[in-house]
UniProtKB/TrEMBL annotation, chain A:
InterPro entries: 2-oxoacid/accept_OxRdtase_asu, PFOR_II, Pyruvate:ferred/Flavod_OxRd, Pyrv/ketoisovalerate_OxRed_cat, Pyrv_Fd/Flavodoxin_OxRdtase_N, Pyrv_flavodox_OxRed_cen, THDP-binding, Transketo_C/PFOR_II. Residues 544-608 form the Pyruvate:ferredoxin oxidoreductase core domain. Residues 1-24 are annotated as: Disordered. Residues 48-237 form the Pyruvate/ketoisovalerate oxidoreductase catalytic domain. The lineage of its organism: Bacteria, Bacillati, Actinomycetota, Actinomycetes, Geodermatophilales. Residues 285-504 form the Pyruvate flavodoxin/ferredoxin oxidoreductase pyrimidine binding domain. One of its GO terms (molecular function) is magnesium ion binding. One of its GO terms (biological process) is response to oxidative stress. Keywords: Oxidoreductase. The keyword Oxidoreductase applies. This is 2-oxoglutarate ferredoxin oxidoreductase subunit alpha.
TrEMBL record, chain B:
This is 2-oxoglutarate ferredoxin oxidoreductase subunit beta. It comes from Blastococcus saxobsidens. Pfam families: TPP_enzyme_C (PF02775). GO terms for molecular function: magnesium ion binding; oxidoreductase activity, acting on the aldehyde or oxo group of donors, iron-sulfur protein as acceptor; thiamine pyrophosphate binding. Keywords: Oxidoreductase. Residues 79-226 form the Thiamine pyrophosphate enzyme TPP-binding domain. The keyword Oxidoreductase applies. InterPro entries: 2-oxoacid:Fd_oxidoreductase (IPR051457), THDP-binding (IPR029061), TPP_enzyme_TPP-bd (IPR011766). GO terms for biological process: cellular respiration.
Length: 666, 364
């Protein structure tokens, strides 16, 4: 066994709180326990190594232990890129802490690399002194050559700047399973569970959840379940007894509001929000969808909830998915379609039809890198303008965006509320980072969720002066049209994509009517602002002169950056938008209060464009499209710069700690 | 009705409540109707002489015989001359977008099995821009009736060739003749394993009504191809079959259980050929036992397919009637069964769903 023994320096380069306590382990080894306030771990391996599963399990253990956390899965678009190559590397990063965290961490404190490719792809992001755990069995000449290592980094001294522990993870796994009856290849596949066991020991994670999970997962293959559990336990026990790891770490649970919690990913939360919207409106849910990364998990999740009257329809294409959803809405269901950017492009014409027919519809766009097929597994926010304007004609559609994985739940309920109350398609913009990322979520009480039944109110009686039904007669307050469903006698009517005459809904080519109807449809969407909360501004001091405005998943990184700024003695306001169309009614006023407004986005400035156009505010756009969330340290530098140039006096405050890349401020 | 009858009544959905309210106001469903009850106040705007008028009349006069209340019928159409159809029918209707009617109707029919859902489409709408939705609707077998008005031309866009136009057709977009090989809609539908496929002529009120009746009664997706004359852009396209002088010679009437004998004095007939195909023969040249007896209920679609291949692009030997009519579970019924099955474990409990599996408690 090679490697240094990380007894002395715990992996907290920024000097985060660390207390050392000694304890003795079986076999007479004295092991010390170091208390940390937060850790960022990154697991990296081949896409066949099960890193996502390992990461998810570690996350569940960590969540149930009571730490706050955020995760960042990062995987290639190929299901199985060639083994051992750089494009095939899959990784999973999580930050967990004894306090609330806003991001998965800018860079890891601990990197687990299951092969040379994983090391090469990730090492640059592991700060000097960080803990590096390697599977030495995989550092074979062949694997090294595949990624261009001329010599073995474990032996050539190139890893001296890190605390490197190289462990034969693969062979220890096969040793542990030699009596399991599994072949060597099959036994090797459990090395991720061995690794998980080791990490579980290192960070004092509860293990019962993982054992239960493995039993459940391999219910039909008990020998595989047993092997995985054995490997998991072997990894744990190895940590406990080996001299290679003399330190284990304790991260106390984070104080959270009392209540019951679970770990939840964005896609899961979004799907549950849709089920909840169905239950709270009383309407059956109909999802029409075509599989697409990274949205398919919503289809998978909803297809499991048939007992709630949820119908899921895997359509022949994106267009049929939304078409079927709209057909279901016409029949009185809550029609939903889920997709990503390329799918939204295909659905555009049907969204226009929904605008014209004024039927409720929720369109979920889990954004990914674009244009075209782009970066299917990476995150981006570049569909905002498509959501706003990607249709022919004047076709306004409300746009709302969740800010965190758990928030996808509330955003879904809100999207349904608007769709039903205003009889309109609503665009719900999630993204790859929210979809696959996870966090602890306070489980809401079903009865406490918004009551959506008043929004439904099907018309059953003629509303015209002459006893006729006028499908385009509107509610005076919401401008929503009357919604009568097939099966209701005396209310037969025809709707469609041709321009409608006011009130009757008959075909009309009258110029004045078209002008009126176009403005009315716009006014209906603008009017939604009356039912949304005022702009969400976080400005603890109340007198910041610089504001940062964001939407969607940048909430965490922006929030973490603002904490850094404030801890340096500067002042900054964070404005985060849930509703992008319409904007909150007071947004213009709010923006006008600040000397400078910075808008970080994972696109080339789409929200900034809208804000500038609407409010004539000189918004400073800060953009990035790397397929990854912003690093909060980088954002903090941008904000600091803005503050210091706006108010040179502020420059005398402490510089934002540049080494606190992993500071407790994330 | 959408309520589940499982002994444990779910709370009535707003859909059930709305229908119940309307029943209270109007009394029991009105199913004794006349043709004129299906007319609307909208002025019919097809070109004078268009075959669509004849079809509209035929549909309006035959619908009362189905005994379906007007409010329980929904007609969904796409884009094209034929797709104006819903405006003239006093039922629920949606004049949607080009090619997508089968998809929209699928969502409606799948979520509301209590409705009678119809699609009205044309050759361009169903076979060109909407070809994908058509074949998938047919293979899924959602309960709906698709009327495909085939005039072998684009009418609404003023006369370009369509996916059913014959090769060499000279149109505005093909001054030197079209190069595309046409679809035979019946063959296409059978290739998609459609459970009901029929064909009728716009002007043949009796034949059309008979095919429509069977199509409407069929559980699952039925496709009826209706030859429709566009007197503006493709006048006389079906004259060979309509002309009393030539029609009987080239039309093969399909009647379940009857031998396929046709033409003046029954001079022609259909017999089996090698490789499972069919061919036309002279009746007096073959042994009567060789003449095929039409069986629309054959499970294997290859017979119906062979029938559909008898006709050529110029419409000689065109079978008219019901090609195939087989029973298969329909999509919306199976979907409803899955929902019922899932609810056997008890109706969904939202609190339990939100909690999921692994939870933990944070104490005050
Ligand atoms: S263009 Fe042809 S199909 Fe269209 S309405 Fe006129 S005659 Fe009928």
């Amino acid at each position: 066994m090679t490697g240094t023994n990380p007894t002395v320096a715990p992996p907290n380069p920024d000097g985060a709180l660390a207390t050392s306590v000694s304890s003795s382990a079986p076999g007479g080894l004295v092991k010390s326990v170091v208390e940390l306030d937060r850790v960022v771990i990154r697991l990296a391996g081949d896409s066949g190594d099960g890193m996502q599963l390992t990461g998810n399990r570690f996350t569940s253990e960590t969540a149930s232990f009571g730490n706050d956390l955020k995760t960042l899965p990062n995987f290639p678009a190929e299901i199985r890129a060639p083994t051992g190559t750089l494009p095939g590397v899959s990784s999973f990063q999580l930050q967990f802490a004894d306090h609330d965290v806003m991001t998965p961490g800018d860079a890891p404190d601990v990197l687990v690399a299951m092969n040379p490719a994983a090391l090469k792809a990730n090492l640059a992001e592991l700060p000097g002194g960080g803990l590096l755990i390697l599977d030495s069995d995989e550092f074979t000449p062949r694997n090294l050559a595949k990624v261009g290592y001329a010599t073995n980094p474990i032996e050539d001294g190139s890893l001296e700047g890190w605390q490197t522990v190289s462990v034969p993870l693969t062979s220890m796994t096969t040793d542990a399973l030699k009596d399991s009856g599994l072949g060597k290849k099959e036994a090797e596949r459990s090395k991720n569970m061995f690794t998980l066991g080791l990490l579980s020991w290192m960070y004092h994670r509860p293990t019962e959840g993982t054992i239960r999970f493995l039993e459940r997962q391999f219910r039909r293959k008990p020998e595989i379940a047993a092997a995985n559990i054995a490997a998991f336990r072997a990894g744990y026990n190895y940590g406990d007894t080996t001299e290679a790891f003399a330190v284990s770490y304790e991260i106390k649970p984070a104080p959270m509001k009392p209540g019951r919690y679970r770990n939840i990913s964005g896609n899961q939360a979004l799907a549950l929000g849709l089920v909840a919207a169905g239950q709270r409106s009383g309407l059956p849910i109909f999802l029409g969808a075509y599989p697409i990364t990274p949205a398919s998990d919503i289809l998978h999740e909803l297809s499991r909830h048939k007992s709630f009257g949820v119908r899921t329809f895997q359509a022949e294409d994106e267009i049929a998915g939304i078409g079927a959803a709209l057909g279901a809405s016409f029949g009185g269901a809550l029609g939903i379609t889920t997709t990503s950017g390329p799918g939204v492009a295909l659905k555009a014409e049907t969204i226009g039809l929904a605008v014209m027919t004024e039927l409720p519809l929720v369109i979920v766009d889990v954004q990914r890198g674009g244009p075209s097929t782009g970066l299917p597994t990476k995150t981006e926010q570049s569909d905002l303008l498509q959501a706003m304007f990607g249709r022919n004609g004047e076709a306004p559609v409300p746009v709302i965006a969740p800010r965190s994985p758990g928030d996808c739940f509330d955003a879904a309920v809100e999207a349904a509320r608007i769709a039903l109350a205003y009889r309109t398609p609503v665009m719900l913009l999630s993204d790859g980072y929210l979809a696959n990322g996870a966090e602890p979520w306070a489980i809401p009480d079903a009865d406490s969720l918004p009551d959506l039944t008043p929004a439904v109110a099907f018309a059953t009686e003629p509303n015209g002066e002459d006893g006729e039904f006028l499908p385009y007669l509107r509610d005076e307050e919401t401008l929503a049209r009357a919604w009568a469903i097939p099966g209701t006698a005396g209310m037969q009517h025809r709707i469609g994509g041709l321009e409608k005459a006011d009130r009757t809904g008959n075909i009309s080519y009258d110029p004045a009517n078209h002008d009126f109807m176009t403005r009315t449809r716009q006014a209906k969407i603008d009017g939604i602002a009356a039912t949304i909360p005022p702009t969400d501004v976080e400005d603890p001091d109340g007198d910041a002169r610089v504001a940062v405005i964001g939407w969607g998943s940048t909430y965490g990184p922006i929030g973490a950056a603002c904490r850094r700024i404030r801890s340096s003695g500067r002042k900054v306001a964070q404005i985060h938008l849930r509703h992008i169309n319409p904007f909150p009614a007071d947004l213009g006023e709010v923006l006008a209060r600040y000397d400078r407004v910075i808008c970080p986005e994972m696109n080339l400035g789409q929200l900034a464009l809208l804000l500038r156009a609407k409010y004539l505010v000189d918004v400073q756009s800060h953009t990035q499209v790397r397929g990854m969330p912003f690093r909060s340290a980088e954002l903090a530098a941008v904000i600091q710069d803005a503050i210091d140039t706006a108010d040179p006096a502020a420059a005398n405050s402490t510089a934002v700690n540049p080494t606190a890349v992993n500071g407790a401020l994330q | 009705m959408t309520t589940v009858e499982l002994g444990m009544p779910d709370a009535p959905t707003p859909i059930d409540a709305a229908i119940a309210r309307s029943l209270e106001q109007h009394g029991p469903k009105q199913t004794e109707l006349k043709g004129k009850d299906f007319k609307t106040d909208q002025e019919v705007r097809w070109c004078p002489g268009c075959g669509d008028y004849v079809i509209l009349n035929a549909v309006q006069s035959f619908l009362p015989s189905l005994g379906i209340a007007r409010e329980d019928m929904v007609i969904v159409s796409g884009i094209g001359c034929s797709s104006r159809f819903p405006y003239y029918m006093n039922t629920y209707g949606m004049h949607s977008i080009h090619g997508r009617a089968p998809a929209i109707a699928t969502g409606l029919a799948a979520s509301r099995p209590d409705l009678s859902v119809w699609v009205v489409t044309g050759d361009g709408d169903a076979l060109s821009i909407g070809g994908n939705h058509l074949i998938h609707a047919l293979r899924r077998n959602v309960n709906m009736t698709i009327l495909l008005f085939n005039n072998r031309i684009y009418g609404l866009t003023k006369g370009q060739y369509s996916p059913t136009s014959e090769v060499g057709k000279v149109t505005k977009s093909t001054p030197m003749g079209s190069l595309d090989h046409p679809f035979n809609p019946v063959s296409l539908a059978l290739g998609a394993d459609a459970t009901f496929v029929g064909r009728a002529m716009d002007s043949d009120r009796k034949g059309l009504t008979e095919v429509l009746r069977q199509a409407a009664e069929h559980q699952g997706t039925s496709l009826v191809e209706i030859y429709q004359n566009c007197n503006i852009f493709n006048d006389g396209a079906f004259e060979l079959l309509k002309d009393p002088a030539t029609g009987p010679m080239w039309t093969i009437p399909l009647e379940h259980g009857k031998p396929l004998v046709f033409g003046p004095d029954g001079a022609s007939c259909v017999v089996r050929e090698d490789f499972g195909g069919l061919r036309i023969a002279e009746t007096n040249q073959v042994d009567p036992s060789e003449i095929v007896v039409h069986d629309a209920t054959r499970e294997d679609p290859s017979y119906a397919f062979a029938l559909s291949r008898l006709s050529s692009q110029d419409l000689r030997y065109t079978p008219m009637g019901v090609f195939r009519k087989v029973r298969k579970p329909s999509y919306e019924a199976m979907m409803a069964e899955q929902l019922d099955e899932a609810r056997l474990q008890g109706p969904g409990d939202l609190d339990a769903l939100l909690a999921g599996g692994d939870t933990w408690e944070v104490k005050a």
